Amino acid sequence: MRRTTDASGSGRPGRGVTRVTGGDVAGWARGVRRQNGRMAHLGLVALLVREYDEAIDFYVGDLGFELVEDTARPDGSRWVVVRPAGARETALLLARPSSTEQQARIGDQTGGRVGLFLYTEDFARDHARMVAAGVRFLEEPRHEAYGSVAVFVDLYGNRWDLLQPRSTE
């Protein structure tokens, strides 16, 4: 994998547009820009999964995410990216483990605490849809000072918050 810069003339990472080339990563890294000296956004979060197809079924079918990419790689793995429908910046890279240590972390990547936060603009609608799809919630919805929330688990046991932040308007 190689990092290059353009347009700024500095030749140093962190100036202008940084691109990562090589393999399937290039497609995702293309166009990542710094804005006002800060990174633009968090693009991908890797999530260990047992099998690609069962993970796609859960995230796309049960949670309502969209499949962004599913590309076979030369090593027999796949580059599988999903994201909440309508999201444009942050997505999940569904990754099969490549070691026994990683295998042991499937479903427990954050040590049993909530580690992923799925924001919604309509908590009641999305909670009802997810319950109807068989998503397992660990608690009844709560209405906190910061918004409406309920903890659910994905098919591997990772804990998520379904969260509708309270409007500040």
Automatic annotation (TrEMBL):
<feature type="region of interest" description="Disordered">
    <location>
        <begin position="1"/>
        <end position="21"/>
    </location>
</feature>
<feature type="domain" description="VOC">
    <location>
        <begin position="41"/>
        <end position="165"/>
    </location>
</feature>
<keyword id="KW-0456">Lyase</keyword>
<dbReference type="InterPro" id="IPR004360">
    <property type="entry name" value="Glyas_Fos-R_dOase_dom"/>
</dbReference>
<dbReference type="Pfam" id="PF00903">
    <property type="entry name" value="Glyoxalase"/>
</dbReference>
<dbReference type="InterPro" id="IPR037523">
    <property type="entry name" value="VOC_core"/>
</dbReference>
<dbReference type="InterPro" id="IPR029068">
    <property type="entry name" value="Glyas_Bleomycin-R_OHBP_Dase"/>
</dbReference>
<dbReference type="GO" id="GO:0016829">
    <property type="term" value="F:lyase activity"/>
</dbReference>
<protein>
    <submittedName>
        <fullName>Lactoylglutathione lyase</fullName>
    </submittedName>
</protein>
